[in-house]
Amino acid sequence: MAFFGQIIKTLLETKHALLPHEPSDPVEAQERQLRKLLETAKNTAFGKFYNFSGLLEADDIRQAYAAAVPIHDYDALNERWWKQQRRTPDITWPGKPDFFALSSGTTGKKSKRIPVTTDMLACTQAVGRGQAECLANFDLPAELFEKDILMLTSSADLHEKDGWREGEISGINVSNLPDFMEGYYKPGLEIAKIADWDERVQRIAEAAPTWDVGALAGIPSWMVMMLRKVIEVNQLKNIHEIWPNLQVYTTGGVAFEPYRKSFEALLAHPIIIMDTYLASEGFFAFNARPGTMSMELAMDHGIYYEFIPHTNEGFDATGTLLEKPRVLDFREVEEDKDYALLVSTPAGAWRYMIGDTIKFTDKAKMEMVITGRTKYWLNVVGSQLSEEKLNAAIQALNDALDCDVKEFTVGAIATEEGDDYLHQWVLGMEKGQVTEEQAAAFLDEHLQSVNKNYQVARSKALRGVKVKITNADTLYRFLEKKKQKGGQIKFPKVMAEEDLRGLLAFMKE
């Protein structure tokens, strides 16, 4: 009998029985989080400049906060405030951060340095505990709570800078795991600190027989590559031959559905798949119950949220924020509508637009899904294709034509005449006998049938659709050429014309 596992499972179930997990009152919870953030930071340079002490006395603290503090993107907050925070304490948050998360997202641009304070690490761990407590909602055997957890992250070899350490957020997080995780965390810090992705995965594959992995966590594209290496090195038919107790996979970073076929092909039987919303700026949401991939927004763990409608009330046609956008708090959002997310956090981020768009699928349960990026909607000619719609189109293609597109990207390319545009898709296909012409016709017809704006665009400036098919490894080699392989790096679903032409040229090589 799994004695300690049974104790852990019983504790979780007992806590749920005595204190059933119900989302706390979001209105009360969010006001509490905002008040705590303002109170903690009121004596910082930022807090004094925007009179946090006065805001705390307002009748409607949320309205006063929104009126006093402008919306910030990274460039605005970094240029005026965060650069000072690296050398001077008490700028946007008390003290100086011990860590900075390097993040370039999917753009490939120069890395951003996002502060990660001790309070922010505590906030992330609090959300993690909330997710762990929700495991009581899943029918998991007691034995699972004694098994290893393999977290596939970016390198944990953090670089020493001028008084702080920096690296990708997943590397920072595994370098600061709670003590009780020490015996369960795999591959361990020694392997996790290997900077070279291929070497790290090779070491994982070689050590795999010595571990009893019950749960996996990581971005699906790189997780599939790692599992394949373990299977190859150990001459297995599937991953359950070496890890028979594997029962849970926590995904995140990108939509899982485009990778489902590739992932499930590596298993002997189905496992529980849970989604998470963990970004460089914070841990925002997690899958709290079975039967859905929607995630519960963490409303009572230290973060305050606002929402900008991803319509002409908030953005122009290029995805650029309006000078005076409409901004809502949780009380005003509606289900099935896209919103850009603003966060205020204990890292000293204030009304910070992280660039993601979300929609609520169940407001009563505070459940949401990520629908894309504010800038990465494909909308050059008014087609209004979100990442969610692009992912759904690829899933439809896989199902209808019995293929397996593992990675893809798309962008608008000017025609030779220069007056109109084509949508150029690049598909990284694992298997299938689909021709480029068949794929182009299917995607075009499907998007016209489900998206009125796309249909209108096809009758005007969007003159056609082209597809180039390659294998997914070619796309990963393109990332490697740009030194962006492994870890938390995500292949962009939408590319600017210049980047897309660069990819097409690379494929010709």
From TrEMBL:
A single Gene Ontology CC term = cytoplasm
Q: Which organism is it from?
A: Neolewinella lacunae
Q: What is this protein called?
A: GH3 auxin-responsive promoter family protein
Family annotation (InterPro entries): GH3 (IPR004993), GH3_C (IPR055378), GH3_M (IPR055377)
Q: Which Pfam families match?
A: GH3 (PF03321), GH3_C (PF23572), GH3_M (PF23571)
Example of a GO MF term: acid-amino acid ligase activity
Q: Where is the GH3 middle domain?
A: 298-363
Q: From which domain of life does this come?
A: Bacteria
- Locate the GH3 C-terminal domain: which residues? 389-497
